[in-house]
Amino acid sequence: MTQLTPAVRNVLSWYDGERPGVKASLARLLMHGRMGGSGKLVILPVDQGFEHGPARSFAGNPAAYDPRYHFALAIKAGLSALAAPLGLLAAGADHYAGEIPLILKANNANSLGTVKDEAVTASIRDALELGCSAIGYTIYPGSDRQYDMFEEVRAGAAEARANGLAVVVWAYPRGGQLDGKAETALDVVAYGAHIAALLGAHIIKVKVPTSLIAEPEAKASYSDGAGYGHLSSRIEHVMQAAFNGRRLVIFSGGPARDDAAMLAEVRGVHRGGGHGSIIGRNAFQRPHEEALKLLDRVIAIHLGEDA
Amino acid sequence: MTQLTPAVRNVLSWYDGERPGVKASLARLLMHGRMGGSGKLVILPVDQGFEHGPARSFAGNPAAYDPRYHFALAIKAGLSALAAPLGLLAAGADHYAGEIPLILKANNANSLGTVKDEAVTASIRDALELGCSAIGYTIYPGSDRQYDMFEEVRAGAAEARANGLAVVVWAYPRGGQLDGKAETALDVVAYGAHIAALLGAHIIKVKVPTSLIAEPEAKASYSDGAGYGHLSSRIEHVMQAAFNGRRLVIFSGGPARDDAAMLAEVRGVHRGGGHGSIIGRNAFQRPHEEALKLLDRVIAIHLGEDA
Amino acid sequence: MTQLTPAVRNVLSWYDGERPGVKASLARLLMHGRMGGSGKLVILPVDQGFEHGPARSFAGNPAAYDPRYHFALAIKAGLSALAAPLGLLAAGADHYAGEIPLILKANNANSLGTVKDEAVTASIRDALELGCSAIGYTIYPGSDRQYDMFEEVRAGAAEARANGLAVVVWAYPRGGQLDGKAETALDVVAYGAHIAALLGAHIIKVKVPTSLIAEPEAKASYSDGAGYGHLSSRIEHVMQAAFNGRRLVIFSGGPARDDAAMLAEVRGVHRGGGHGSIIGRNAFQRPHEEALKLLDRVIAIHLGEDA
Amino acid sequence: MTQLTPAVRNVLSWYDGERPGVKASLARLLMHGRMGGSGKLVILPVDQGFEHGPARSFAGNPAAYDPRYHFALAIKAGLSALAAPLGLLAAGADHYAGEIPLILKANNANSLGTVKDEAVTASIRDALELGCSAIGYTIYPGSDRQYDMFEEVRAGAAEARANGLAVVVWAYPRGGQLDGKAETALDVVAYGAHIAALLGAHIIKVKVPTSLIAEPEAKASYSDGAGYGHLSSRIEHVMQAAFNGRRLVIFSGGPARDDAAMLAEVRGVHRGGGHGSIIGRNAFQRPHEEALKLLDRVIAIHLGEDA
Amino acid sequence: MTQLTPAVRNVLSWYDGERPGVKASLARLLMHGRMGGSGKLVILPVDQGFEHGPARSFAGNPAAYDPRYHFALAIKAGLSALAAPLGLLAAGADHYAGEIPLILKANNANSLGTVKDEAVTASIRDALELGCSAIGYTIYPGSDRQYDMFEEVRAGAAEARANGLAVVVWAYPRGGQLDGKAETALDVVAYGAHIAALLGAHIIKVKVPTSLIAEPEAKASYSDGAGYGHLSSRIEHVMQAAFNGRRLVIFSGGPARDDAAMLAEVRGVHRGGGHGSIIGRNAFQRPHEEALKLLDRVIAIHLGEDA
Hints:
Five copies of one chain form a homopentamer. The first copy, chain A, is of the alpha/beta class. In chain A, 40% of the residues lie in helices and 14% in strands. The first copy, chain A, has helices at 6-13, 20-30, 48-52, 54-58, 67-77, 86-90, 124-129, 146-162, 186-198, 231-241, 259-271, 281-284, 288-302, and strands at 41-45, 81-84, 102-105, 107-108, 119-120, 134-139, 166-171, 203-207, 248-252, 276-278. In chain A, strand 2 (81-84), helix 6 and strand 3 (102-105) form a beta-alpha-beta unit. Chain A is globular and about 55 Å long. The interface between D and E is large, with 45 and 43 residues.
């Protein structure tokens, strides 16, 4: 944590009126690792074990069954932060204390149940005890439980802010009127980002949107010739939805797949003004060295060093 | 906060027995802006991003994606207050501290789900921290969740009043026995306003009613030849339902449309004794200068300066 | 509050073991107005605006749209108390402080929805702030939500009693196995009164029963030749169901109709040993002077001054 | 609780902004007994057993050892209220429920200790359970513990007001710079009354002041030739100190002594605009019939029926 | 609440990081009355009745015994705010709701005792219920109880800020090593102001300092030839002590005395960069018209309109 750069100062200015402790937490995230000072973030999330089960998450690279693997990877790669559920963070927070900003993913779901909801699995106190810089919650706008989830986020966010923690919201629309394709439709992703901002999120995590417009009532609003066929235009629109770019928005890579496709997507996020990437399975499901190489390229893209 | 006018003193007299702090908050709303001192209110609500999504709300005037746009618009137009969800208010409350009374819209719904309910997205403490003068809740009389919503409003209103905040209730009947047309039927709108008053609302927001009478049992009560074909007569009836005019009732403009039609409606509200208008999409979905012009005309009508 | 009469002392003796504050509240109700000291009660309830909508409730006598009308009517007529929801009481409790005992009707339903339930719309703290002598709840024995309602009443009643407030229960069987006629069947009304007593009600409000016996299993129990064809015999039976007459039971007049029929019913209640009447629509839906005349006759009947 | 008189309405108007329930409690005190409706109060306080011990308090009239004696005396004499500690009220509140307004004296001291302080011996919940209309606290302005006492009163008064109870403060300066004579000096008594009013007391109880001015710095303020040699002038000054007569102030008779002297003092209180008397030992330390006669004369003086 | 002036925006910029609600409250104080927009404050404090007794405070102008007098005076004179204890504010907050910003003086002492301490006589909840913009506490740096007082201020200030209220601290060094003259010594007054700022005060109230340097150890620090013989230089030094002028500091007029001397002092405060005056006894102890004239001159000086 050396002197803040103009880019980081600019990001912090978007949060005027927020408590100094929250700004200090945001600054810690923004000044760490290779992205430090750029105003962008590249984060390693490891909640897939909870979401999809351990084998689906880690069998491809068995070293990743060990929680400490993820701390080491994030540190080695020079990432901005590691985000994970309570147990995983608790398994490495002591050994790696002070080496990498932590985001406690405080609600979680699994693939065994049928209800589109999440359990609150950690508290603000847990986050403070582990030395986290932020707390994270997932919301499912559209689901039958969405309003309960919003209320959980609201309560958690208020307590987090009162304790100087930043709040990250994973906005994943699903359920209700939305089918599988609609979940990543441009209008729906933008809507999810906007709701997260209205709920008070400091950092918003969304999926990379497709060019589909899912809500019939919304179609007219997208007939402006802005060229939503280009990913960068779609990213630009999501940034608009996030208070005209005045909230940090990072984009997930989705399921593991072809590197070229994935990096092309990262380039689109960068060109569209997205604030970074959150790369999980694409990182930890491959051998360590390959993961470092891939993350190096993602970081280079977001730093504008990619020619 | 200059000396109260007789018109404002008269409004405050309706709330005898209420805490002095609540009266001071009402006075703050009633003494601000161009409507200041008239006993009437013109309010800018910006919860459409939550309710209908960002593009449907702001694509027509992209500057409105930025929360600060709405603060600036409300201030420039000389409105009585800005009403919005937590995240939007938090994004401008510091920069515009002390420049415009704020109403924290504390529950919200979106158009992605299928359940007729709202999430409580903000607390009284949030409202106090942001320097708000009032807190606002939507109720859906008729919906399957209506009684839960009433209980949320009751709890929030009690805490608000104990902390010197005024309570605004958006009364939007829907669900249950009501189809789309019934939602704006005269008897149903009046019923919604009455329920809001009985729940303890200080300010009630309803939609402009049509001349339809939706409840069969209510038809006889409207066969008094009062001429409900005239909008002003319908407004008069809604005011009756609001404790015979002893509660502040403001009317929404509904979806953006033809200015002449909208202004004619505002004139009807004024002639019928309504206490003002709440103009959202009709204001922020058009260019800034045009919005100022339209709001200027709405204000003029409510001030009786419209010839 | 002058010296208690033997009739009132007798009523209070039924509640031995109850907290002194609750007895003092009951005494306040029983010593007030023209019924004061008789051990009987005539109460004005004004929750019809919530239950049936404002126009159906007040269009026949528009002055009644103003909450203060009902305070003034109850005071002028010398009634025992005014019972109404939070917003209505709050609109007059200050101006009329100390002039008429108040009963806060703390749960309410409306006719727009389809769920047979009520919302809890007020708290014990609300009742104390407004200076009420009692709190009132409706239960719908038989409805799908009945047990939730019983539990709300239980919680409210316990807190009310701990704070010296009396508890009034409106026992309105409906839903479940009951069709419209069954709701006022003798066995069902008596059953509702008994449940209210068992839930700890100090004052029970029921509808005047018909001679129908609705539950097949109950028919044998009513073949005792007690002459349930006479209203007074039916009232006597309801009083039996209310701890053999050791709970205050008052009877509602139902929808507005022919005065002669209504007064005949009141006479039946009186002859059967009922403790009084609760007269809403029959009172406030007619012009003020006529309402006073009718209430005068009801009072006279319950005082035994009716020849 | 019959219709409020103009005198009582006038008293209530001094408490604008106070909760309706508190006004209703004040109205109950002001409308009860022979003083009812006059805007004045005559109260029986029985805390001397705690303050001075039972024999010093009751040996002169052994019937007064029984708590119920005091309830019966206050009722029979037509007094405004009975004020006593928890145990004494609890010993009669059930039997006399609803017959006399009660004031729970919630802090107490005894003559065995040496510290000028009082114990908080009852709660607001106790007062509500017993059906009290008010709660009372003693303060000793000047004592080393005065600030602790003020804080206790503040906490109790806030909770009382939130629950619709009136607050009575016994203002007895003592300790600190004050010797015995100073405790009843005009400037000191007025100072005590003023502090009680600033702490939020609705009813203030002070001792009848002498013409001494105890604080050297205050002497100049009393050199206005107002004739403080006359008791009525001194009472007038105390009323000034109580928000220019806009707080109810009642005066104690002090230790038992010659009736003529005592009644002369009551006349002075009446002439000076005092709002009544609080008569303890002079009432219950003499035989029942004599007590009734004396109280009858005190009441007559305050009603202006004394020729 | 009209548009903030550059002067007020500048003041608010000193409090960056503070909650928006606190800034809104500061803005309310800074935008009200004749000083509105100037960045300066002239406040009427009325706690002398508690501190010195009613006669010493109000006998010179008996109309001032009535709490409403002070509301009316502050409003008529166009002052920034009225500061007073709970009971006084409660006696006018309803009638004057919304007409003048209020500061609840939440701890108080009197002149009867010998202990240099204050009682906490009001809560944050009280301030919110009364519609106050700020809460105020006195500290006695140097006294034996100073640390208890600091802790009370800290707790109150934290709760006030969390609820959007500004915090005013009256810094009055006394006791300990300080004799009467030392209480207003330049080094001691500056020290008190600095402690208040360090405790988190938004507005600091001190006495006008003399040129005495009381602490021997401090003497060397004042040998800089800054000319502390001039009041304006001394004021400049106090402003330095208040975070180099980045905290609002207002100066009290002290006991009533010669107008010319008092106004000369106000001029010195103005020239030295003080943020305004708090004028109590000099205002309310003289006839109404004379008070208005004096306050008009004080205001003119602080507005720089005094030639």
